[in-house]
Automatic annotation (TrEMBL):
Residues 10-172 form the Reelin domain. Pfam families: Reeler. CDD domains: Reeler. Residues 1-19 form the signal peptide. One of its GO terms (biological process) is defense response to bacterium. This is Reelin domain-containing protein 1. Its main location: secreted.
Amino acid sequence: MHVLHFCLLIVLARGWSSGAPTEACSDIYPAGHNGTNSLDLQANPYRLDLAAFDELGGTLYYVADQSYKIVLSGMSGEEFKGFLVQARTLADNSPVGQFISLGPDQQLSDCVPEESAVTHINASLKTRVSLTWGAPDNGRGQLKFLFAVVDSINTFWVPAVTITLHRMCPTT
C-alpha cells in the first residue's frame, strides 16, 4: 500500500488595492510592490499641482488654519491605480496638516496621525484625484508634500517631492 502525501502551499499576496498600508507611511514607499527601486523620478509622469497656494515672487506660501485644494494627475492624462500623499515639515520630516473633504476614491491612510495622509480606496484607474488639505493652525514652518503613485505591482513612482512651501505669517 502506497501512502500519498500532499503538500498545500498557500501564498498570500500583499496587493494593496484598497489603500496604502501602514508600512508605507515611513518612507512613502508602496509596501508589497516588486522591485527594490522606483522608476527614474526625472521621468515621473505624475505631478501634485499646488496652484491653490499663495504665490509671491515664485515662492509658494500657506496660511495657518486654511484649506487648500491640490490635484494629483498624470501630466499627459496617464492613468494610475494607487496613491499616497502626505505633507511633512522640512525641519524634522514630521507629518503636518490634515486631509479633509475626501472624494469617492479616497480615504485617510493608516499613517500617524491618521488625517495626515490620504490614499486610494480601490484599484480603479484614475487620471486625476482632487484632494483638500488643511494647514495646521499653528503653522509649522516650511513644508513639502511627498507622494507615491502606483500604476501596477511593478510600476510605481516614489518618493516624489514637491517644491517647498513657506508659512505666511499674519501681519499685525
